[in-house]
Amino acid sequence: MRVLYFGTYERDYPRNAQVISCLRSAGVEVREQHVGVWEGGRENWRAGAGAAVRLGLAELRLLRRADEEFDALIVGYPGHFDLPAAKRAARGRPVIFNPLVSLADTFVADRGRFRDGSLAARALARVDRLALRSADLVVADTRADADDLAELGGLPRERVEVAFVGAEERVFGPGWAPAEPFTVLFVGKLIPLHGLETVLAAARATPELRYRLVGSGQLETLVEQRPENVDWVPWVEYEQLAGELHRAGCALGIFGTSAKALRVIPNKAFQALACGTPLVTADTPAARELLVDGESALLVPPGDPEALAGALRRLAQEELAKELSAGGRAAYEAHASEAVLGHRWRELVEGAVARA
């Protein structure tokens, strides 16, 4: 089985790296036809004119005939603009789209880059629909997201399948050994999805706990007004994140209240589970697809700093933290390990090839 991973996808983004790694571990030969657009930027949410020019030039390059032999083509994330070139390159073979997000949902509803109803917002929604409809199969990261993408694209639900995000096991693995004092770790882009306001409010309510924030982005002004018990590091190299997780008392997921926040499980949640680090995240339909409150994570209402503060005080107790460490790692091994997801992705590719 041979797959061509195709497009302007961000090569180092965990979703892409993980899918390629999982397929290879499942015995699938993966070749790449990649034209870089997004690499090296920490604030891609700005989506400015420069990115548009780079993207246009990249799409012209992707129109060149693919030299590789393959059975199916996968368009990586972000790849919404790559579908026309992908269909041409596939030459009748199945095209699988790994979108991860809706562009309109991300840049309009979640990050507020464009006003709802504006020309740009309508254009992004159209790009979403055309990309989704162009693919023979769309693969979402949760059932909640799959339902939304099917509705957005006007697709039969069976054309949208699900494979969890998982974690790159060459980087993230067991080794949780929390340092003293107990420290709450937040890792991620500072965007509304993560509920940064909720995290900072919980920190103010728990001055006895230490917090470590790792990340930069849209909401940095909030961090500049952080309480004294919060340390902020704008950037840590990807390869060093496992060490951060191994030393932390617990890791935070997302706490935003947007529709998107209810449908996704972020990369950092899977990375924490893979490391055996106790996880606290919002109680959402997506989280419930993987996690059980009090067994594999602590789940709190989205946007509720008092509930988050209470959960963190509970987790500072050593025995509960140990139980969640073991339970979270068990959930990861059962549902999101590279072995499990490799089998899942191979199954999806083989199914698409058989139908074609």
Topology:
Blueprint (H helix, E strand, L loop, with lengths): L1 E6 L6 H12 L3 E6 L14 H14 L9 E4 L7 H8 L4 E3 L5 H8 L8 H16 L2 E4 L2 H11 L6 E3 L20 E5 L8 H10 L4 E5 L5 H4 L6 E4 L7 H7 L2 E3 L6 H5 L3 H9 L3 E4 L2 H4 L9 E3 L4 H11 L2 H18 L2 H18 L1
Parallel strand pairs: 1-2, 1-3, 3-4, 4-5, 5-6, 7-8, 7-10, 8-9, 10-11, 11-12
Helix pairs in contact: 1-15, 4-5, 5-6, 7-13, 11-14
Descriptive account of the structure:
The protein has 356 residues and is of the alpha/beta class. 44% of the residues lie in helices and 14% in strands. It is built from 15 helices and 12 strands. The chain has a 6-stranded parallel sheet, with helices on both faces. A 6-stranded parallel sheet has the order 9-8-7-10-11-12, with helices on both faces. Helix 8 links the parallel strand 8 and strand 9. The longest helix is centred in the last third of the chain and has 18 residues. The protein is globular. 47% of the residues are buried.
Instruction: Assign the structural class, choosing from mainly alpha, mainly beta, alpha/beta, alpha+beta, or little secondary structure.
Output: alpha/beta
Reported for the largest beta sheet, the result is: 6 strands, parallel
β-strand amount: 5-15%
State the end-to-end distance. Answer: 14 Å
Helix content: 40-55%
| Tally of individual helices | 15
Shape type: globular
Provide the gyration radius in Å: 20 Å
Order of helices and strands: EHEHEHEHHEHEEHEHEHEHHEHEHHH
How many individual β-strands? Answer: 12
Runs in which pLDDT lies below 50 for 5 or more consecutive residues are none
Q: Which strand order do you get reading across the main beta sheet?
A: 2-1-3-4-5-6
User: How confident is the prediction overall: mean pLDDT?
Assistant: 92
